[in-house]
Design a protein that fits this description.
Blueprint (H helix, E strand, L loop, with lengths): L11 H12 L4 E8 L4 E4 L3 H25 L8 E4 L4 E6 L3 E7 L4
Antiparallel strand pairs: 1-2, 1-5, 3-4, 4-5
């Protein structure tokens, strides 16, 4: 298990249950919950990997959200999926947190 902090997420029990359910899905390699500043709050990955994904994806998500709003100010980013040869990264941004799921798309 990677990063865990003493900060309590709203609905902590529900968050833990959701993370367990997601992690049990076939092909899921890791899950990271990042706050709006890009700081990992929860992770199922090791610390260096968590930090790398949190930092890079935070910047990417902010740019993607900005691009969506630039095209249409009435719109907002609700989900982001990036698929490469090795893995697929899915991001569900929310008001206070980003949920990042990394999975092997071939499994």
């Amino acid at each position: 298990m990677g990063v865990t902090t003493e900060k309590v997420l709203p609905g902590e029990a529900e968050v833990e249950e959701t993370l367990k359910r997601l992690q049990s899905q076939k092909g899921v390699q890791g899950i990271i919950v990042v706050n709006t500043e890009g700081i990992p709050i929860k992770s199922t990955m090791d610390n260096p990997t968590t930090t790398q994904y949190a930092n890079l994806m935070h910047n990417f998500i902010l740019k993607a959200r900005s691009t969506v709003r630039e095209i249409d100010p009435q719109n907002d980013l609700t989900f982001l999926r990036i698929r490469s040869k090795k893995n697929e990264i899915m991001v569900a941004p929310d008001k206070d947190y980003f949920l990042i799921v990394i999975q092997n798309p071939t499994e």
